[in-house]
Design a protein that fits this description.
Blueprint: E1 6-7, H1 23-38, H2 47-50, E2 55-59, H3 66-77, E3 80-84, H4 96-111, E4 114-119, H5 121-124, H6 134-148, E5 162-168, H7 176-180, E6 184-187, H8 193-203, H9 216-222, H10 228-252, H11 280-292, H12 294-316
Parallel strand pairs: 2-5, 2-6, 3-4, 4-5
Antiparallel strand pairs: 1-3
Helix pairs in contact: 1-3, 4-6, 8-9, 8-10, 11-12
Length: 317
């Protein structure tokens, strides 16, 4: 059962080049995780000190690229990716879940370098409470015991090349003992303007654009407060606008739908982001602010930037 959760790195279709706006975090991840996993000889002069951390946590609002970044780490590092689901560790018979946890770490040792990824890690390894079921507490204790064993050196004097990678949008619900075992914590927050611009460029790179009527910089401005996932959905809605328009015109001409020529569909325009389906509430509100007063919108943008900076300072401290 556990073996079914393994994804070979070559089968993961996501790399760092596919992620927009997280360049700083990606560089840190390379230095602290990927290089120690892929080039352990480079750190052999201080192997225990410079080994890859046994645990890494990605945290932040939903839709900001945490899961995508985790997959890219596995792809770029060439590590086997064990995508651990809650259902994998849930068994009805007492003690079976503990056996599955042991099987996960045993498999990771055989496949190393390996990454054990737990999405929504707070649901699996959340804070232990007095009213918690005994079996749940035993699973967490078993997981932490085996996790600690990763730091033990092998016969060559090197620690295991296995990383437990977690993602959550509820960091405060994770058990303190689990957080201690994840020394590397990377906040993945809402993108700022330059990051949103990069995200838009990646999403729309293979999309037909009406260059004369499209302002990507403006779209980057009015998507303030939106996650990468929200921006992708806004682009999807906008891309449907010219298709919908072309189908309507084709039907009005009385021609058969089977004769439709997709090459004649026009490119995306700025206005397509604000149609009947376009973009969601945040995008519509920001668009109205920008239309009513450019000065007013600039104030909103500046406030957003300062708030994001304050959050980073708070997280670091």
């Amino acid at each position: 059962m556990v073996a079914l959760e393994v994804v070979p790195p070559e089968d993961i279709p996501v790399g760092f080049d596919d992620i927009g706006g997280l360049e700083d975090i990606i560089e840190e991840v390379k230095e602290s995780v990927i290089y120690p996993l892929t080039m352990p000889h480079l750190y052999s002069h201080a192997a225990p000190l410079l080994a890859a951390p046994s645990g890494v946590l990605l945290y932040g609002p939903p839709g900001c690229g945490k899961t995508m970044l985790a997959k890219a780490v596995a792809h770029e590092s060439g590590a086997s990716f064990i995508n651990l689901h809650i259902s994998t560790l849930t068994e009805k018979w007492y003690g079976d879940s503990n056996k599955l946890v042991r099987a996960v770490f045993s498999l990771a040792r055989k496949l190393q370098p390996a990454i054990i990824f737990i999405d929504e890690i707070d649901a699996v390894l959340g804070t232990r409470r007095s009213g918690e079921h005994e079996a749940s507490g035993m699973v967490k204790a078993e997981f932490m015991t085996l996790w600690d064993g990763l730091t033990s050196a092998n016969t060559q004097g090197l620690p295991a090349r296995i990383v437990v990678l977690g993602a959550t949008n509820r960091i405060h619900d994770i058990d303190e003992a689990i957080l201690r075992r994840m020394p590397k914590k990377f906040p993945v927050g809402l993108p700022d303007k330059s990051q949103r611009l990069r995200i838009l460029q990646l999403i729309l790179k293979d999309t037909k654009i009406d260059r004369e009527h499209f302002n990507v910089d403006y779209i980057a401005r009015v998507t303030a407060g939106m996650s990468g996932s929200d921006i992708k959905e806004a682009c999807r809605d906008a891309a449907m606008a010219p298709v919908r328009e072309f189908i309507r015109e084709h039907r009005a001409s009385g021609r058969a739908m089977s004769n439709i020529d997709a090459k004649r569909v026009r490119g995306i325009r700025t206005d397509d982001f604000f149609g009947r389906k376009g973009g969601g509430q945040i995008l519509q509100q920001n668009h109205q602010k920008a239309k009513s007063s450019s000065d007013e919108y600039e104030d909103v943008e500046d406030e957003e930037e300062s708030n994001s900076g304050a959050k980073v300072v708070e997280q670091v401290s």
